Amino acid sequence: MEIPFFKYEGAGNDFIMVDNRSGFFLENTKSIENLCDRHFGIGADGLILLENSDGHDFRMVYFNSDGRESTFCGNGGRCIVAFATQLGIVKEEVRFMAKDGFHEASFDGELVKLRMMDATLPETETALNGHRIFTGSPHFVQFVELVDSVDVFSEGRRIRKLFGEEGINVNFVEKQKDGLFVRTYERGVEDETLSCGTGVTAAALTAAVEAGYKSPIKIRSKGGNLRVEFKVLTNGFSDVFLIGPARMVFSGLISLPSA
Question: Residue 69 carries which DSSP code?
Fold first, then answer.
């Protein structure tokens, strides 16, 4: 079976995009894992299906590179908006469903501005010297002095496993004069990624409460620059937006073995 695909990246976070409005792509953990393999497949941090959704422009179904369906992906959300625009499904204002609920998006010049879910205040994890917050996916945020000196793979993996089988995404955050520098270990990928949209959102919201940062907050990641806007409430955050680039890298066909 031949699968038509498009490869997108948002701040270095890369995804295989499949237009599945006809329902031809049947979800299979092993097939998705093979497609995301950087040696034997296309290579990506995850795979995203664009599907039909009553009352919305489309539905986003996101899988980590381990082949398992996951919660929301911020950079993937921006990439699917760009993909839907390329397909001619949407033009300027976008409304779509994802596993964590309803999302809106628009374009800020060449950047995609994606509305994230409202969030509650971060919870302090005293024993781990960090904070836990849900921004569409579960995240742990730890502030460090020099993030470039952190062994993100080893330390991120250690903390991820402390949160049970489902685990948690782990963000190491350096405070800078003009914003934050964030590095993330992602569950499901089980490695550091060049960027994580829900992760930088978690870092920004935590920095607002714990370090007095004001919206908008500029975010630096290894894969590129992002921006997070939000309103602070007494019990959390509203009007949370993740803003950054999303572009197509290449497209093609790949053969999958028959089931």
Answer: B
H helices, E strands: number in the chain:
4, 18
Which part of the chain is CATH 3.10.310.10?
2-115+246-255, 119-241
The pLDDT value recorded for residue 258 is: 59
Of the listed 32, 44, 60, 73, which one is catalytic?
Answer: 73
Domain range 119-241, CATH architecture: Roll (3.10)
Judged against a pLDDT cut of 80, whether residue 257 lies above it is answered with: no
196 tagged catalytic: yes
Smallest Cα–Cα separation from 236: which of 139, 124, 120? 120
Residue with tokens 């004069």: 177
Instruction: State the fold for domain 2-115+246-255.
Output: Diaminopimelate Epimerase; Chain A, domain 1 (3.10.310)
- Tokens describing residue 11: 């701040």
Q: Give the pLDDT confidence of 180-234 residue by residue, as tens digits.
A: 999 999 999 999 999 999 999 999 999 999 999 999 999 999 999 999 999 999 9
- Which residue in 104, 125, 128 sits closest to 115, CA to CA? 104
**Angle subtended at Cα 237 by Cα 234 and Cα 240, rounded to the nearest 5 degrees:** 160
Catalytic: which of 36, 111, 196, 217? 196
Amino acid 197 reads G
143 half-sphere exposure, CB direction, 13 A CA radius: 16
| Active-site residue, 36 included | no
- pLDDT band of residue 27 (cuts 50, 70, 90) is confident
